[in-house]
Design brief:
- The chain has one domain (about 20-170).
- The longest helix has about 50 residues, at about 20-70.
- By secondary structure, it is α+β, with helices and mostly antiparallel strands.
- The relative contact order is 0.15.
- It has 2 helices and 7 strands.
- A 4-stranded antiparallel sheet has the order 4-5-6-7, covered by helices on one side. A 3-stranded antiparallel sheet has the order 1-2-3, with no helix packed on it.
């Protein structure tokens, strides 16, 4: 019996495997791909963490607004003023229009019966939030509650501000 074996080799070379150069190049390409993938995962994780902190700050702000809405009119005020509040001009006893995003300054509602603390801190999932609450007399006999939540992100201060107007008729 006559057996013939036929090998098809491109350009007269052998096809016994990868050369050392080909293996090094393939390894380098894989390292670059994995490094890029790892960096993408890291960026996605940090973005997800920032989004979670922003969502938590929003929830804290809404919680403070709902608390104020549940109070009797006589308790919608602050027992004291935080002199270092970023929204308050303590010498004038007003919410400063520009940092609060208002058209004009508004007088603070400071009352010993007030139940809204001007500053609190809250820690959630390793992030510490500073919560600044400011109650002011808004036009037309309304009270305005502004809640500013601040936290640190990579050495910078991030913030979320929310507010509501409350009418005396709407309180319990």
């Amino acid at each position: 019996m006559n057996q013939r074996t036929s090998h098809s080799c491109g350009a007269g070379g052998s096809d016994d495997g990868f050369s050392l150069i080909e293996a090094v190049v393939a390894s380098f390409i894989m390292v670059v791909l994995f490094a890029g993938f790892g960096r993408s995962l890291g960026t996605a994780y940090l973005g997800s963490k920032d989004n979670a902190a922003t969502q938590e700050a929003t929830a804290i702000g809404v919680e403070r607004l709902e608390f104020a809405r549940s109070l009797a009119w006589s308790h919608i005020g602050m027992p004291s003023v935080a002199d270092d509040s970023p929204l308050v001009d303590p010498s004038q006893q007003v919410v400063a229009a520009e940092p609060a995003g208002l058209d004009a300054d508004e007088s603070l509602v400071v009352d010993p019966d007030g139940l809204i603390d001007p500053v609190e801190t809250e820690s959630v999932d390793g992030v510490t939030y500073t919560v600044w609450s400011t109650v002011s007399s808004a036009p037309q006999g309304l009270r305005r509650l502004i809640v500013l939540v601040q936290w640190e992100v990579e050495g910078a201060t991030a913030s979320h501000r929310t507010s509501t107007l409350i009418a005396e008729a709407a309180t319990r």
